[in-house]
Design goal:
8 strands; Rossmann fold; alpha/beta; single chain; eight-stranded mixed sheet
């Protein structure tokens, strides 16, 4: 079984690449919107081995849900309770969480709208959805799929990791959020500043030539928040009305 917490493994590269961006962003959202609440219940939807829950364990009571038992079985101590389940039919009651995190998940599911609908159903009015996902554009197709996955000389990701046709455009994402009762939405771009591109290229060359690990490559690439939303986004939205309750 591949370990998500092995410094030399592929999964740890996702941790070092994304968490310096999403952990501070999500923490700021919790502080700004739920900071006065004494007890916050959070679902990490499509959690993997719990990178987000581990990074924000002090924020509230976490439940990490993933379809893979192998993934949730690697949840570290202090990062909440692991549950095996389907993001398209979450095994929790209506209005049972204060927040749902759905980070790097929507691009991997067959019907992202159903997943957002389920997140809305289990979140109370006034609660939060915190999300991150690639955006469907010619730039994301070139960089995330063609260069990073397919081209023999440049690929550093598993060849089947992303299906570009499953990515949402920004307008599709915003429509889905509005349809399922979310508003007060903040969306930011995730990527590289122009001055960082050569740093990222050098890191990828070192990774490709086996001189550094995926984890070290993630650290050296140095993703950050940008105004460019053509490759990936991160955001928050607040549930303003009920739309998807189950009896």
């Amino acid at each position: 079984m591949d370990s998500w917490w092995d410094e030399s493994g592929f999964w740890q590269g996702l941790h070092t690449l994304f968490d310096p961006v999403r952990i501070p962003f999500f923490r700021a959202a919790f502080d700004a919107r739920l900071g006065d609440e004494k007890s916050v219940r959070i679902l990490d939807l499509g959690s993997g081995a719990g990178f987000v829950a581990a990074g924000l364990a002090d924020v509230g009571e976490w439940i990490a849900l993933d379809v893979s038992f192998q993934f949730v079985s690697q949840l570290p101590d202090g990062a909440g309770r692991g549950v095996v389940g389907d993001a398209a039919r979450v095994p929790f009651n209506n209005d049972s969480f204060d927040a749902v995190v759905c980070s790097e998940v929507l691009e991997h599911v067959g019907d992202p709208e159903t997943v957002v609908a389920e997140a809305a159903r289990i979140t109370r009015i006034g609660g939060l959805l915190l999300f991150s996902t690639p955006i469907r554009s010619r730039w994301s197709r070139l960089l995330l799929v063609e260069v990073a996955q397919k081209w023999r000389l440049t690929r550093v990701l598993p060849e089947n990791l992303h299906d570009w046709h499953r990515f949402l455009t920004r307008s599709e994402l915003e429509r889905i959020l509005t349809t399922h009762g979310y508003g007060d939405t903040e969306i930011r771009g995730v990527g590289l500043r122009p001055s960082q591109w050569w740093q990222a290229v050098r890191a990828l060359i070192s990774l490709k030539t086996l001189r550094i690990s995926h984890a070290e490559a993630g650290r050296r690439i140095g993703l950050g928040l940008t105004s460019n939303m053509r490759i990936a986004v991160i955001g928050t939205a607040q549930k303003l009305k009920e739309t998807n309750l189950r009896p």
